[in-house]
Automatic annotation (TrEMBL):
The keyword NAD belongs to this UniProt entry's keyword annotation: yes
Annotated source species: Pseudohalocynthiibacter aestuariivivens
One family name in Pfam for this protein: 2-Hacid_dh_C
Listed name of the protein: 2-hydroxyacid dehydrogenase
Residue span, D-isomer specific 2-hydroxyacid dehydrogenase NAD-binding domain: 120-275
Claim: Amino-acid biosynthesis is one of the keywords in the record: no
InterPro entries per the UniProt record, alphabetical: D-isomer_DH_CS1, D-isomer_DH_NAD-bd, NAD(P)-bd_dom_sf
Keywords of this entry: NAD, Oxidoreductase
Length: 310
């Protein structure tokens, strides 16, 4: 019997219990699954969410792995009580949602939709937007989400440039890496999408110097993590017109405080960390597959590199 502890908020349990049981049953596993844990010493797998109650992993003496429901693991990766493998979430439903959100916001800027949505004032402005094939979109982060968004944008004919830590070769994305690669992507990107994890290396990656490299009036779209951007630098770039608009889904402090300048800035769109989320039906299959692998002695899917921090 495998003991699985669902260590996330109660509201998530209602959503996840049925699909998780279904996915575990389909794997033919014999298990107990609960969102309560009276005896940590019998737990084999911990299904984890950073907003749940669990912060100290040390009582889980026989646990084999922590399986995160979230893609971003910055709040748990450095936990000194966590000494067993940590897997993050790569979920087709999460990717699907991110592709839709990113594509929508890129198209808003590409097509200049605001001109008509906010400018219906009796003036006939016959501005015809350019075709996507003339527009370069940069994506910082070419992981599960960055690649999915890059593929979708490329299918719409955008010229897509991407940047990642390791050098990649992808069919429809011109890939860059390293410091010079970052500069190349920034210099060409009229629209830039941030899909990097938050790590010590990526914090403040958009700052005064890097924002200044971009074409004047470039648009920033950040569904990655708030600390990727130096907020003071972005506000200064927006005020000077160097940055044309910022669509921000994630922030250093969430919820974004009501008096934060982003709320009132005419060239900032705030969305409340809703770009996408893990979907219980598809994510349950990933969790069940990882438990099957753990029991079969196979390597886990989507293992976090604890040193790299993602
Ligand atoms: P992955 O781990 O699959 O991809 C991360 C990418 O970032 C990889 O391409 C990686 O490079 C690159 N990267 C990491 N560090 C560096 C660095 N120092 N320099 C250059 N590139 C770097 O993550 P996902 O695509 O699954 O998710 C990305 C992020 O999206 C999450 O960490 C999370 O913060 C955010 N997110 C936001 C959501 C929202 O609703 N707003 C929902 C879900 C996730 P390499 O490929 O070489 O390893």
């Amino acid at each position: 019997m495998i003991h699985i502890y669902f260590a996330a908020k109660d509201v998530r349990w209602d959503e996840y219990e049925a699909p998780l049981r279904k996915a575990l049953d389909e794997k033919g596993l014999s298990y107990s699954l609960s969102d309560k844990c009276d005896d940590p010493s019998i737990i084999d797998y911990i299904v984890y969410a950073p907003n749940g109650p669990l912060k100290d992993f040390s009582p889980f003496s026989r646990a084999k792995a922590v399986l995160s429901l979230w893609a971003g693991v910055e709040d748990v990766v450095g936990n000194p009580t966590l000494k067993i493998p940590l897997a993050r979430m790569v979920d087709s439903g999460l990717s699907e949602g991110m592709v839709e959100w990113v594509t929508g916001h890129v198209l808003r800027h590409h097509l200049g939709m605001d001109l008509h949505i906010h400018g219906q004032d009796g003036v006939w402005r016959d501005y015809v937007p350019p075709l996507a094939r003339t527009r370069t979109v940069g994506i910082l982060g070419l992981g599960a989400l960055g690649q999915a968004c890059g593929e979708a944008l490329s299918a719409l004919n955008f010229n897509v440039l991407g940047w990642s830590k390791s050098k990649k070769q992808l069919d429809n994305i011109t890939c860059h890496s390293g410091e010079e690669g970052l500069k190349t992507v920034l210099r060409s990107s009229e629209i830039l999408v941030l899909l990097l994890p938050k790590t010590p290396e990526t914090e403040n990656i958009l700052n005064i110097e890097t924002l200044a490299l971009m074409p004047k009036g470039a648009k920033i779209i950040n569904p990655g993590r708030g600390p990727l951007i130096n907020d003071d630098a972005l506000l200064a770039a927006l005020d000077s017109g160097q940055t044309g608009h910022a669509t921000l889904d994630v922030f250093r402090i969430e919820p974004l405080p009501a008096d934060h300048p982003y709320w009132a800035h005419p060239n900032v769109t705030v969305t409340p960390h809703i770009a996408s989320e893990t979907r219980s039906d598809t994510a349950s299959q990933v969790i069940a597959e990882n438990i099957r692998r753990g029991e079969a002695g196979l390597p886990y899917l989507h293992l976090v590199n604890r040193t790299a921090g993602y």
